[in-house]
Amino acid sequence: MKILVTGGTGKVGTEVVQALLRRGESVRVLTRNKEAKLPDGAEVALGDLSDPVSVAEAIKGVDELFLLTGHVADELMQTLPAYGLSKKKGLKHVTYLSAFKTDQFPEVPHLAAKYAVEEAIRAGGMPYTILRPGYFVQNERWLKPVLTGPGVYPIPAGNQGLAVVDIRDIAEAAAISLTEEGHEGKTYDLVSSEMLSGPDAAATWSKLLGKQITYSGHGDFDAFEAQLRNTGSPSWMAYDLRVMFQRCVEHGFSNTEDQAARFAALLRHQPRTYGSFAEELAREWAAA
């Protein structure tokens, strides 16, 4: 069986490719970069989700699809053609990487686009699995300068708790859905039992780094959006991230015990937690 992975050179896609290869699957990766360094055994298909012709070529000879679209302004236009072409070619299964609570945030462009794709997939008739991950704990890797420097935790996570997930667990869930029976027509929330809040994150990093970390991200979403633009994010993305975090804080982005337990049952082990990844990352920073 051959599986096409889109977004296979990014942080999530790379883990998915490796998880599939460990299971002995044949993997093809759609990438724009002809110099992309892929794991041994992975096949390169040059192309771009914004170019349906290249996607159609990449799908030839493929049995299943892992469909991941990056955070882009034209997310619908990149994602729906790939799904439509896969359906036309008669692929056996698609696993789509969506996001947690997409159906509850219609005013957030990134989440609204993912929910529209979900609905198209559910109505399309092709066998599918939808994965809905929470906030990636690996996002914290980019906070080293502000945590180890001025000592602030800047993510506007709020006080109630955001659902989180480790991308290695996402990859494992994706591989399970693509290689094992029983996941057709299922939607899984990929969430750890431990949630992220701003004050708890500051306390965690204070302990791990041995210095006082202050939570600075609560309340001023205008400043958060401006900071994103000032540090290089496109204006549309800065707005999208601002609205996403603001709505999550205001309306809630927490998960239930049942959701975390269902994810654990899918993995056949407990998902990694925010705290365990933070410890891992702190050791990595100390060693560097």
Q: What does it look like?
A:
The protein contains 11 helices and 11 strands. Helix 3 packs parallel to helix 4, helix 7 runs parallel beside helix 11 (274-287) and helix 8 (221-230) packs antiparallel against helix 9. With 288 residues, it is α/β, with parallel strands linked by helices. It is globular and about 55 Å long. Helices cover 46% and strands 15% of the residues. The model has no long low-confidence stretch (mean pLDDT 95). It has helices spanning 11-22, 52-59, 75-89, 109-124, 144-148, 167-179, 198-209, 221-230, 235-251, 257-267, 274-287, and strands spanning 2-6, 26-31, 43-46, 64-67, 93-97, 128-133, 135-136, 152-153, 164-165, 186-190, 214-215. The strands form 3 sheets. It has a 7-stranded parallel beta sheet, sandwiched between helices. Helix 3 (75-89) links the parallel strand 4 (64-67) and strand 5 (93-97).
Count every helix, treating DSSP H or I runs of 4 or more residues as helices.
Answer: 11
Largest sheet: 7 strands, parallel
Instruction: Kindly report the spatial arrangement of strands forming the biggest sheet.
Output: 3-2-1-4-5-6-10
Q: Structural class, please?
A: alpha/beta
- Spans where pLDDT lies below 50 across 5 or more residues: none
Number of strands: 11
Distance between the termini: 41 Å
- Gross geometry: globular
Average per-residue pLDDT, rounded, comes to: 95
